[in-house]
Amino acid sequence: MTIKDLKNILIISFGFLLLFTAYGGLQALQSSLNPEKGLGVASLSVVYGCLILSSLFLPPIIIKKIGCKWTIVISMCCYITYSIGNFKPNWYSLIITSAILGIGAGPLWASKCTYLTISGIRFAKQNGREKMDIVNQYFGLFFLIYQSSGIWGNLISSLVLNQNPNKVATDNISYSYCGANNCPTSTTELRNTTTLASGVSDMLRYTLMGIYTGSGVIAILLIVIFLDQIDLSEEQKEENNNPTICTSLLGTIRQLKDKRQCLLIPLTMFSGFQQGFLSSEFTKAYVTCALGIHFVGYVMICFGATNSIFSMVFGNISQYTGRIALFMLATAISVSCIIALLLWSPDPKQLSVFFIFPALWSISDAICQTLLNAFYGVLFDDHKEAAFANYRLWESLGYVIAFAYSNHLCVSVKLYVVLVILLIGMILYLVVEYLEYRKQKASSQDTNIVIMEESLKVLYETELG
User: Following CA atoms 453, 455, 461, 465 in sequence, which dihedral angle do they give, to the nearest 10 degrees?
Assistant: First the structure.
């Protein structure tokens, strides 16, 4: 990794760290901070619904028009509006700012992935290294820093909300409808959640949103001042340099003709289902229901801290263990967590358990986020923008579905849905690995045949001579 590459990766990583310190903290709080008629969860559904549309239409157009750097800058501005909308949340302000954020999210993630992938592949070519290994390392470093946003965003929210003078005692509240038994029709659950989530003063809300907004502004300034624009001329020389919405949409849809892309859809969606469950159902039905909203941040810090560390670890050790072994580890951890959450009844006396679940689940998420992003970048090297647009599209669809049924299904049913998506996704992922193995084996055989033919030709010419 060159010094220039390291500098640019660090700038992108810390920019995302600051931006998602705000958004990640807000996302974890939405189901508890804005519970009235499901406003918080509805806003998240709008975010990821609009993200799907923006992933379909916008990334290739914007990236090719203004480059990765300025795409990141403009998209970050869209994120700030969501923090502003939460100052005085209602169905108009929050839904509109959610839509703006969702529109900017597709180009943001596609440009980030394109920037890191191109940087990694160019370095690998110049130094005779394996592309997958270098790209994995680049993404591992990015996610090491980016995932720590879960620490700072949630720490800020807990420290601010912990000053709430209206916190209520929870000693005499029943917890029988917390956890997997939590259902929308449960009056006890509704009473508990409303009691524990209410009482956040306007002053504390303004303080929290002010901090989050400021964090986003600093992120934008960091990218504008220090990030180098990456040259996309090599990637664009054989492509249309004047893309339209139609060509962008067709490019994203055309990517689905690749059966490998289609086979990776369930696993990509699982990433959205898993994170959606953790940020809405676990925080509300387990943490807020049993401990109170001021504990949400502390619990989610475990997720962010563990995710940050293991993203870097798995990005580096994947070259020794291979992807398949790590994805199998992620599957085993997620399945174990799902089964345990189905059986466990939340109790404030078992405080450590509330921290263990997000810590374990973050290991699975670190594997999926780091290796799946890198896998997309190398597997679809010729169509990176369209591939990453599909990645965000299908991951966002997982979020949308998870948030859409949030107010209609029991937590136990939601856990079974996540489990089914995971198992289907891993089976189809293994099919992709098998197809790639056969492709590489056939390519190796063809190369050997060519070498043998050349050798025989040289030998024949030598004998004639």
Answer: -170
Q: How far apart are the first and last CA of the chain?
A: 49
89 φ, ψ (degrees, to nearest 5)? -70, 130
| Cα separation, 277 vs 316, whole angstroms | 28
CA distances, 406 to each of 304, 353, 359 (Å): 23, 23, 23
AA identity, residue 410: C
Instruction: Specify the length of the chain in residues.
Output: 465
**Per-domain residue ranges for the chain?**
3-230+245-441
CA distance 40 to 38: 6
Query: What is the value of pTM for the model shown?
Result: 0.71
Segment 274-309, tens digit of pLDDT: 888 887 788 888 888 888 877 888 888 888 788 878
**What is the 3-class SS of 18-84, one letter each residue?**
HHHHHHHHHHHHHHHHCCHHHHHHHHHHHHHHHHHHHHHHCHHHHHHHHHHHHHHHHHHHHHHHHHH
**% helix / strand / coil in the chain, to the nearest 5?**
85, 0, 15
Q: What angle do CA 176, 180, 185 make, to 5 degrees?
A: 70
Q: Are 352 and 173 in contact (CB under 8 A)?
A: no
Question: Which one-letter amino acid corresponds to residue 175?
Answer: Y
For residues 395 and 269, the answer to whether their CB atoms sit within 8 Å is yes
By the 8 A CB rule, do 140 and 309 touch?
A: no
What pLDDT score does 150 carry? 75
The Cα 177–Cα 196 span in angstroms is 14
Q: For the domain 3-230+245-441, what is the CATH code?
A: 1.20.1250.20
Burial class (CB in 10 A: 0-12, 13-18, 19+), 308: buried
Burial class (CB in 10 A: 0-12, 13-18, 19+), 164: middle
Tokens linked to 162:
């912990």
Rounded Cα distance between 465 and 459, Å, is 10
How many angstroms separate the CA atoms of 405 and 14, rounded? 34
